[in-house]
Amino acid sequence: DPTAARRPTESIHVESPNLTYTDDALLSRYTFHSTAVDKQADAQGHVKYSVRPVERELEFKTGRKVPKTGLMLVGLGGNNGTTLTATILANRHNISWGTRDGIQTPNYLGSLVRASTMRLGVDAQGEDVFVPISDVLPMVHPNDLTVGGWDISSMSLDKAARRAKVLEYDLQRQLEPYLKEYTPLPSIYYPTFINANQEERADNVIPGSDKQAHLDQVRADIRNFKRDNDLDQVIVLWTANTERYSLLVDGVNDTADNLLESIRTSHAEVSPSTIFAVAAILEGVPYVNGAPQNTFVPGAIELAERHKAFVAGDDFKSGQTKVKSVLAEYLVNAGIKPLLIASYNHLGNNDGKNLSAPEQFRSKEISKASVVDDMVEANSLLYKPLAVKEADSKDGFVKGHSTEHPDHCVVIKYLPNCGDDKKAIDDYTSEIGMGGRNTLAIYNTCQDSLLATPLIIDLCLLAELMTRVTYREEGSADYEPMYSVLGLLSYMLKAPLTKPGKKPINSLNRQRQALEAFLRACLALQPVSDLVTFTQME
Ligand code: NAI
C-alpha cells in the first residue's frame, strides 16, 4: 500500500494531568480564560470600562481513530475538481513530471494543514519548537481520500483536466489512465441559477423538475458512495459554478420546515446548491460551500442545527481577499487609515465566464465586500461612528455601516486568453500622519485552481476533524458536538458563515489563532504567549 507510510501517527505526547489518553480518544480538561467588559458612558459622555477576568472549565473529547473518508465534490469536472483529483493522485502514486525547468515532484503547497507549521512551545535552550499542523491531532491524510462527486458535464476527468488547461502536459499524460476512471454523477441543473453560457456543458443532469426527487437522488448518491467505497465518513463540498443569490422569501426558505415543504412542491427559488446542502444535512455528513451564493438560506441553517449536522461557507479565500484582509489589518492596526480600496480582476477560465453575467457577479461582489468591516469597526480612533446608518449609499457599495468606511469596489472581467491565470490589481490609498497619503499598488498573478485546491483539502480535513471533537462544560453529563456552523474554517473562506446574529471575523491572523487555540485545547494546552519571549523574563 503506497500510502501506508504516510498515515498520521501521533508524534506529540502531552504529559499533563489534564490530558488522558484512552484507546480511542483524547480527553482534555481545559480552563478557558476570557475577559468580560462592561462599557458605560457617564453624564459627560466619558466612557468607562469595567473589566472582569472570566474562567470557564471545559472538557474536550477527540476521537483518535481516523475514519476512512470520502470527498464528494459538486462540480467534480471543473478546474478545481480536476486539479484536486489530479493533485491527490499524483501525490498518492508519487508521479513526477517534466517541465521546461526540470522535474517537478508532487506536493501539497498552499495547504495550511499539510504545508504549514505551528509553534508548539520552547525547548530546553529556550528555542521555539514548530510542528506541522497535520501532526497536532490525528487527521486524515489527503492521499487517503476517496474522491467522487457530481457535474452537469459528463466528461470523464482525463478529458476534463485537458479542458481545464491547468496542469502541465506531461502530468496530464501520466495521470490519464487514473483520471479516466472518474466520471461525474449526473447533477441538478436549474438554468436560472447559473449563467446561460454554461448550458452547453449541461449534458449530465438528473432528469425531471421534481425537486423532491432530486433531493432523494442526491441523498442516495451519498449513501451509495459511502457503501461502495466502504467509507466511515463523507464530506460534500460545492466547487461548482457560482449561482445567483436565492431570494429570501417568508414561507419559502425562512424556516427548516418551510424549506423542506418548498422542496416537496418544487418551488422555483430553491437552488441546486441548497438541495445539495439539505441532502448532506439529512445524511448527517458535513457540507462546505466553496462558492459565494447564499446556499445557506435561514431554513437550511435551522435544518443543520436541528440535525446537529455540520456546515461551512462561503467562497474559497484563495488570493486577493486573503491579501486584503491581511493588508487592511496591518494598516488599521498601524494607525493608518485606508480611504479607498479598489480591486480589479481579470481571468479567463470557466469560472470567469460564468461570472460575466450580472447576477452571478453580484454573488461574488457581495462575498468580497465585507472583508474589511471588522478591522474598520475595531478602530474608532480612525473611523468615527455614523449618526445615522447609511442604508444605501450613492455608489451602492457602502451598505448599512455603522461607522465611517473606506470606499471599496470590486471589478471582475472575463478575458478568455487569460486562461486559468487570474490577475488581480489592487489600489490601497490611505491617510497617514498630518494629512499625508500613502498608496500601495498590488499586482497578483496566480493559477487560480492551484491556489484553491489546497483550500479544498484543508476544508475537508478540518471538517472531518470537527466531527470527531465533542465537548462539555465540566460537570455536565454528556459531551455535545461542536455548533453546526463551523466558524473555525473561516481561514479558508472569504465570507465566513456564522451563527445567525453573529458577525464574521475576517482577520486572517485571528482566524489562524483560533484554529491553533482549538487544536491546543484538544491537547489541554493553553495558547502560546510571547510575554516571556520579548521581555527576556526567563
Ligand atoms: P469551473 O467552472 O471550472 O468548474 C465548475 C464546474 O461545476 C463545471 O465543471 C460545471 O460544469 C459544474 N457545475 C455547474 N453547475 C453545477 C451543478 N448544479 N451541479 C454540478 N456541477 C455543476 O470553476 P472553478 O474554477 O473550478 O471554480 C469553482 C467554484 O469555486 C466557482 O464557483 C468559483 O467561483 C469558486 N471559487 C474558486 C476560486 C479559485 O479557483 N481560486 C476561489 C474562490 C471561489
Q: Can you walk me through this structure?
A:
- Helix 1 (79-92) crosses helix 4 (169-179).
- The strands form five sheets. The protein has a five-stranded antiparallel β-sheet. A five-stranded parallel β-sheet has the order 9-4-10-11-12, sandwiched between helices.
- Residues 1-7 and 389-398 have low confidence and may be disordered.
- The chain has 15 helices and 18 strands.
- Strand 17 and strand 18 (480-481) form a beta hairpin.
- By secondary structure, the chain is of the alpha/beta class.
- Bound molecules: 1,4-dihydronicotinamide adenine dinucleotide (NAI).
- The site of 1,4-dihydronicotinamide adenine dinucleotide (NAI) has 33 residues, from helix 1, helix 10 and helix 13.
- 1,4-dihydronicotinamide adenine dinucleotide binds at residues 74-75, 77-80, 150-153, 187-189, 194, 201, 239-242, 272, 290-291, 315-316, 318, 349-351, 354, 448-449, 451-452.
